[in-house]
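Project outcomes to date are best conveyed with an example. Our students and postdoctoral researchers have been running inverse folding experiments weekly, and each run begins with a structure described purely in C-alpha cells. The record below, which covers 290 residues, was selected by the lab manager from last quarter's runs and is presented without edits.
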C-alpha cells in the first residue's frame, strides 16, 4: 500500500494480513480516444495527515447534500480494517485540507461528521460525510467536487493520479483490469493496473484516479509492488481466474469506484440494502444462507 511511511509502526500488527464485482458498462475505447482531453488539476483534491483524497459527488447529488471525501480504507486514522471488516456510519471529526487548483495553497479545512463507509475487503475505500454541503463548499471556496464516473475505465484510457498529500499529478494509462489483487490477508477485485509511468509513492494512497478524457473519478489509488515480493504487504500480486499468480515489481494499482453509484443516496448517505448496491457489506448485513 502506498500510504505515508509513518504507518510503518502499524505493519507488524498486520504482518499476517494483506490487501485484495459486478458487470457494468465500460466506456468505449473509441469514445475515450475521440473525447477532448479534460483539464486535470488539484481542484477538488484534499490532503489528509497520512494520505491523499478528494471531494466527490454523484451527478445526481443535490446542492444541499453534504459533501463527501473519498480516500482509502487503509488510510483510516484508527488503523487498517481487518480482512472481512466493513465499517458503516461511524462518528468522525477527521479534517482534510482542501487545495487550490494549482496546489500551491490550502483554501479551506474541511471537517467530517461521520465515516460513511470503509473497508479493505473487495476494494480499498473510505468515504466521509462532511459538515458542509456541496453548494456551501463551492460558494465559500470556488471549488467544485469531482464527479464520480458510473462506468469502468477502458483499458488504454489516459488517467491521472492526483495526490493532494504530495501536490503531484502522475499521468499514465490504464494497463488493464486485474481479476484479483492479493496483498497479505487482503483480496481486492477488478483492480486498475497502471502503465509504468505512474510511479506513485507513500502518501499518494487515496488519490483520485481521474479519467483524462472526461475529468471524472474512475478509481482511488492504493498500492504497488515495491520490492518484487509475492502477495506480501507492499508487494501485491495479481491472481487470474485460474488462480495463476503474477508479480509485477514497480507497478502500481488502484481500485475502481463506480460501485458507489448503486449505494450513495439522497442526503449523501450509504444504503447497502439497495438491490443495485454491490459494495462489500458487513457480515451482519449479508442475507442468511438458505
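After processing, the design step wrote out the following sequence:
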Amino acid at each position: 500500500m502506498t500510504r505515508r511511511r509513518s504507518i510503518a509502526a502499524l505493519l507488524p500488527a498486520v504482518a499476517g494480513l494483506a490487501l485484495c464485482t459486478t458487470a457494468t458498462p465500460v466506456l468505449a475505447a473509441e469514445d475515450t480516444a475521440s473525447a477532448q482531453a479534460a483539464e486535470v488539476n488539484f481542484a477538488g483534491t484534499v490532503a489528509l495527515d497520512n494520505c491523499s483524497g478528494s471531494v466527490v459527488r454523484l451527478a445526481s447529488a443535490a446542492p444541499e447534500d453534504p459533501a463527501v471525501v473519498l480516500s482509502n480504507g487503509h488510510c483510516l486514522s484508527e488503523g487498517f480494517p481487518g480482512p472481512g471488516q466493513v465499517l458503516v456510519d461511524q462518528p468522525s471529526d477527521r479534517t482534510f485540507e482542501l487545495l487550490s487548483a494549482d496546489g500551491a495553497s490550502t483554501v479551506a479545512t474541511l471537517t467530517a461528521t461521520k465515516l460513511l463507509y470503509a473497508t479493505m475487503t473487495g476494494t480499498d475505500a473510505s468515504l466521509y460525510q462532511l459538515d458542509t454541503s456541496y453548494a456551501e463548499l463551492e460558494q465559500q471556496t470556488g471549488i467544485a467536487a469531482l464527479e464520480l464516473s458510473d462506468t469502468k475505465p477502458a483499458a488504454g484510457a489516459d488517467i491521472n493520479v492526483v495526490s493532494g498529500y504530495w501536490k503531484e499529478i502522475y499521468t499514465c494509462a490504464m494497463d488493464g483490469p486485474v481479476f484479483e489483487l492479493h496483498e497479505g490477508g487482503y483480496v481486492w477485485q477488478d483492480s486498475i493496473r497502471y502503465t509504468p509511468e505512474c510511479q506513485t509513492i507513500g502518501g499518494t494512497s487515496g488519490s483520485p484516479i481521474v479519467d483524462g478524457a472526461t475529468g471524472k473519478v474512475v478509481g482511488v489509488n492504493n498500492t504497488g509492488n515495491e520490492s518484487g515480493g509475492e502477495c506480501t504487504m507492499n508487494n501485491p500480486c495479481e491472481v487470474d481466474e485460474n488462480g495463476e499468480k503474477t508479480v509485477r515489481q514497480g507497478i502500481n494499482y488502484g481500485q475502481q469506484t463506480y460501485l458507489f453509484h448503486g449505494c450513495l443516496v439522497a442526503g449523501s448517505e450509504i444504503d447497502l440494502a439497495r438491490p443495485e448496491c454491490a459494495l462489500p457489506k458487513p457480515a451482519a448485513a449479508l442475507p442468511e444462507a438458505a
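The chain has two helices and 18 strands. The two ends are 37 Å apart (CA to CA). The training component of this project remains on track.
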